[in-house]
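Holo model, adenosine-5'-triphosphate. Inputs:
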Amino acid sequence: MSQVDRIKQHWPAVNRRLLAKTFNELGWEQVLTPVEIEPGRYQLTLESGTEYQFSGWTSIWDQLIVEPNSIIRLDQKGQQTDSCDASQFFLDARAELGMSSATMCNFLEELGNTLMAEVQVHENYQAMTAADMIRLPDDELQCLLDGHPKVTVSKGRMGWGLEDYQAYATEFRPDIQLEWLALDREQCELALIEELDEQQLINAVLDQSEQQRLNSLCDQLKVDRSRFFLMPVHPWQWQNKLVNLFAGEIAAGRIIHLGAFGDPMLPQQSLRTLSNRARPKQLNIKLPLSILNTSCYRGIPGRYITAGPELSRWLADIAADDPVLASRGAIILEEPAGAFYPHPLHSQVKDGPYRYHEMLGCIWRHSVHSKTGDNEQAVLMATLFQKDGNGQPLINEYIRQSGLSADEWLSKLFNAVVVPLYHLLCKYGVGLVAHGQNVTLVLKNNIPVKVALKDFQGDLRLVNQDFPELETLSESVRSVTVRLPAEYLIHDLQTGHFVTVLRFISNVMAETGYSEHRFYQLLGQQLAAYMTASPELKSRFELFDLFTPEIARVCLNRVRFRLGYGDDAERPVPELGTNLINPLALTRE
Ligand SMILES: Nc1ncnc2c1ncn2[C@@H]1O[C@H](COP(=O)(O)OP(=O)(O)OP(=O)(O)O)[C@@H](O)[C@H]1O
Ligand SMILES: [Mg+2]
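Output:
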């Protein structure tokens, strides 16, 4: 089916879905304030004179959850309009959102791109049941997910057109062949964990015959391997940001373009990390894509590259040695190598936009399939709140097929995932942005057994206190890692995981009859059991208190409305709304 046909077929459904998400999230972020006009029916009156009405229910997270098919729009004359168009809504609500004209027009483009992706997402699973979906191989299932659950323009990929989406976007499930460059070692930073050699980095993408083909080209071009390091780059990045912006380096012979080589690579949910489709146990490849996608440009900063391998090894050693983590089988998806080539001109503009400082680099990461057994499944946490074509959540199907009760299943989930994250925070002062794309759940016979954690460069932060447990981490690594006060660091778990993952799981389960109260009560029980078993960490549990009556409401969408599309030197930081009642405190026994 062509994109044009897909648009014709799915436009109403994807717009309704995006509108419902918009009402859900912008209501929660306190940008919109619908009022209840009759039990379960709400009205949103906008300064523009337009009005929206919809049905919904209020969750334990102080969130109105809107039923997509119930939405109607009334124009300034009070007439119901034919269609529900997500883009028109943002224009209708312009006064409430406070976007400048320039921000609004850019936003509409980001939204248009997102909708272009959403019609493909809809096409992918609209005819599938949850049972069909969870039967898929893990990497394929990852391509079927809806994406970031909070951000309305979650698949903006500013700078990409339809052909780029089809060639490189996760939901199109493309086979990507990477481009290869030979980089002058004197110009680049390269870090490898001790026992790793460069050959293994090449093996990750190239099989024997491709290696022969690449080697003979290198011989032909007289590429001296002691002077040059071979590195893959994303084909889009090569064509759009490297061949032009690094042309001086090419002319000087410090960068040599070798061409496309290697196995077909499949993009993961993060778009710029790719799995080897032919040999799934090989290292994943994370590459810069200088496009704006969900909040920021997706480059690779040089700042963490040299520290990255040591940092993730330190974490992996902890996971192996610490009884709380080891007994729960927690997996660290190590990043054993990283490379970065600074831009010779842009690096002279120190406070220039961050996207210009992050264009050429690579991070190699262990594939989760190299760490799990053949009878285990590894699914992103976001899979659990994903719905199938009939609106049924996948988590219900996992629970059904596991043979466990929902209570038992959830208790195992929290013990396998939340306890390790909380322990890392309390014992080691390590915060990981634990959202549904960074945290992977490993299931055996559909039962949660362990967690796999990834994405440490920039997304791993340390407490700003001198925990003795941090002393085994070298000073050089500590000095490049962001340090945060405990009250901020706790948000990597509270906001990153509870609000951004568990909120969505408890929502979809509540829609099918499972008590939210019970959900957070079970979470509290698992945390309490762990805390009782670790009395030596009492003062840390007070420092990182998950049971406070209220927690901060961290708002992502509002940042875009206010900051717009300026080319900033730093990544944007979220805004705060009024505090939330903490479901863990509410349900404490
Ligand atoms: N459920 C989800 N939660 C958060 N982000 C998601 C989710 N699904 C898809 N994404 C996408 O994944 C990316 C998350 O950003 P993040 O900085 O964690 O990852 P990354 O550094 O780009 O890649 P990786 O995690 O592969 O190292 C964004 O591009 C976002 O749109
Ligand atoms: Mg990530």
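Residues 3-28 form the longest helix (26 residues). The pocket of adenosine-5'-triphosphate (ligand 1) is lined by residues 147-149, 154, 268-273, 286, 293-294, 298, 382, 435-438, 454-455, 459 (CB under 6 Å).
Archived with the compound record.
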